[in-house]
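Recall that a protein's primary structure is simply its ordered list of amino acids. Everything else, from secondary elements to tertiary packing, is in principle encoded there. The following example makes that idea concrete.
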Amino acid sequence: MRRAAVLALAAVAAGVLTFASANPVSADPWKTELDANLMLTQTSYSNNWAGGETGSLAWVVNSSFLAQNQLNPKMLSKNTVKLAFGQLHNQDKETGDWEKPVKSTDLIDLESVLNLTLGGFVDPFVSGRIESEFYDNRDAELARYFNPTVFTEALGIAKALLTEEKDGGAWSVRLGGGFRQYLDRDVLDPVTTERANLTSNDGGIEFVSDLKYPLSKDKLELASKLNVFRALFYSESDKLEGLPNADYWKTPDVRWDNTVTANVTKYVMVSLYLQFLYDKEVDLGGRLKQTLAMGLTYKLK
């Protein structure tokens, strides 16, 4: 089944390349958008402060980049880059010294989608995505950068429900077959004390909903992205036979990111971020992250 899926993906990719060669790329300029912001929270106390409070410093840098172009009347390319990193610094209650910073946010998300805009009710698409982290601090003995990494390839059908030209916002949905590869480098085996790269892969059905909509002109904006992946095969399933979690990989994985941004001034913004994650192999319940922050922002279009 896995071999057939890989061959199908290769066949579709070859078809897209053939289609592209038969339709010359236009000279139209790329539409680009850059959005970057810095969130900073700082607290300090004098030496004679009465109470158990301690100083703290929290900062987060977020950035997103979009490059989109109608390469020709039948090919639309959309590429996004999302980067985020933040740390939390706390002051020791007794000595007043600043402790080692703790990572609070870490994200590398690169995605490229190619739609064949053939004028039908839905459009065929192929996509590729890379997800990782800048700094992996799970292992106290070894700092690993750009780890772990998940590669995702997908193909199927897509539909634009809203467009900026007509509706002021953009909303697209995709449904198709997806294939994921996992890489975790230099993982320590507690028994042998040796390190090795851990790899696995799976494939199944993927649904993606991507929404960006202005709630009020130039002031309030909603960005929401929903990913649902239902695996149909898993390379490590044989090793799980007989265990209580043998079928956990069959449960759909859900990732839902929501951000509401309010522009107070041209360079000052307030944002509310809500993230819901569900992966039964990680935890039996859903996980929720919420961040409310105010900071500096910069937009370039």
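Residues 87 and 103 are 4 Å apart (CA to CA). The chain has one domain: 30-44+55-300.
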